[in-house]
Write a structure and sequence with these properties.
Layout: E1 8-11, H1 13-16, H2 22-34, H3 37-40, E2 44-46, H4 73-83, E3 87-93, H5 109-119, E4 123-127, H6 137-149, E5 156-159, E6 178-180, H7 189-198, E7 211-213, H8 234-247, E8 251-253, H9 262-268, H10 271-277, E9 286-288, H11 291-294, E10 296-302, E11 307-313, E12 319-324, E13 336-344, E14 349-351, E15 354-359, E16 363-373
Parallel strand pairs: 1-2, 1-8, 2-3, 3-4, 4-5, 5-6, 6-7
Antiparallel strand pairs: 9-10, 10-11, 11-16, 12-15, 13-14, 13-16
Helix pairs in contact: 2-4, 5-6, 7-8, 8-9, 8-10
């Protein structure tokens, strides 16, 4: 089985857009190993849009890597990435053109899948721009899903379908291993808040082998790069990363990890947060409270061993936040309470019936929990 837990890695788009190259990918692979990101679970180095020439080869009809950006070709690059113990990801589109107006894979699915397999590709992000209006997305993703399965290589199928056409109802049947359920993220707190709110009712169909994808992380971008619109504080990034972990979605870094500071590195390699994200049971989270009215959110999740809880304050002021244990099923009549272990913040100790605290502006508190007999 290819993906029992949410995939983790890096994608070029958020920071670099079209400014990609073999040198960038090699440097990124080097740094992922040097900084221990690989040991934390980040395995995929994904090249997004703009990697090819503007036209296919007229004789073979294959997509051709841009020789200025990737002079040694993709097979040599994948060999280098694999030599680091990492995996190489690529990008294509279900349309005739990609979102940035490069050749897409429509009606070339099997040729492109075989080409990616020959190059040693391990991951394909498959976008949804410029697709024929007369063909439903479900059929387009079935075509590439089948093509990848018959390519002769295990290739993770990342369906970047944006959450249209009720994708969560049919995408698992196409062979996809993760599916974009939202529009594009940008680097500001309102963007990631809206993304989480949009998916609060969608996680029942996210599980092993096919995970809901809330887009690449902007953690650590600080307003720089291709989607650097406004930027965030460290507290915002802690909230974003905690929410992605609590929701059990893929963790694809989007910042320039070559320039990642120590605080961000510590955040994205936090073993307790990653253990929540990678929990083997892949349970959907519970969302408590009216986030749109109160600008705060409590998220609770069952884990293989125990539970996790996050208190997220999106507002610009201190907020009183609480968890009533009966809301997650632990009643007073049970004779039990929760004992908390801090992950972010200082929530610890034993509590009966409820726990309450003040959460600072644009920040979060995260804790692991287990029950105890009162």
């Amino acid at each position: 089985m290819l993906v029992n837990t949410p995939p983790m890695g890096f994608n070029t788009w958020n920071t670099f857009g079209e400014n990609i190259s073999s040198e960038l990918i090699r440097q990124t692979a080097d740094v992922m190993v040097e900084k221990g990101l690989d040991k934390a679970g980040y395995k995929y180095v994904v090249i997004d849009d703009c990697w090819s020439l503007k036209e296919r080869d007229k004789a073979t009809r294959r997509i051709v890597p841009d020789p200025k950006k990737f002079p040694e070709g993709m097979k040599a690059l994948s060999d280098y990435v694999h030599s680091k113990g990492l995996k190489l990801g690529m990008y294509s589109c279900a349309g005739q053109r990609t979102c940035a107006d490069y050749p897409g894979s429509f009606d070339h699915e099997y040729l492109d899948a075989r080409t990616f397999a020959e190059w040693g590709v391990d991951f394909l992000k498959y976008d949804y721009c410029y697709h024929p209006r007369f063909i439903e997305g479900e059929l387009l993703y079935r075509r590439m899903g089948m093509a990848l399965k018959e390519s002769g290589r295990d290739i993770l199928f990342s369906a970047c379908q944006w959450g249209t056409e009720d994708v969560w109802n049919w995408i698992r049947a196409t062979g996809a291993h993760m599916f974009r359920s939202t529009g594009d993220i940008v680097d500001n707190p309102e963007s990631f808040k809206k993304i989480v709110i949009s998916q609060m009712g969608r996680f029942s169909q996210s599980a092993a082998q096919c995970f809901n994808d809330m887009d690449m992380l902007t953690v650590g971008m600080y307003g720089k790069g291709n989607v650097g619109v406004g930027g965030c504080t460290l507290g915002d990034y802690q909230s974003q990363f905690a929410l992605w972990c609590m929701c059990g979605v893929p963790l694809m870094l989007g910042c320039d990890i070559r320039k990642m500071d120590d605080e961000i590195l510590k955040l994205v390699t936090n073993p307790l947060l990653i253990s929540i994200n990678q929990d083997k049971e892949c349970r959907q989270p519970m969302f408590l409270g009216n986030v749109e009215r109160e600008d705060k959110l409590v998220v609770f999740r069952h884990l293989e061993e125990g539970y996790a809880v996050a208190f997220v304050n999106f507002s610009e002021m201190n907020r009183d936040m609480s968890l009533s244990f009966t809301d997650v099923g632990l009643t007073a009549a049970s004779g039990m309470g929760f004992e908390f272990t801090p992950v972010i913040g200082e929530l610890s100790g034993k509590y009966l019936e409820y726990v309450s605290m003040v959460v600072p502006p644009r920040s979060c508190v995260v804790a692991l929990a287990k029950t105890f007999k009162a």
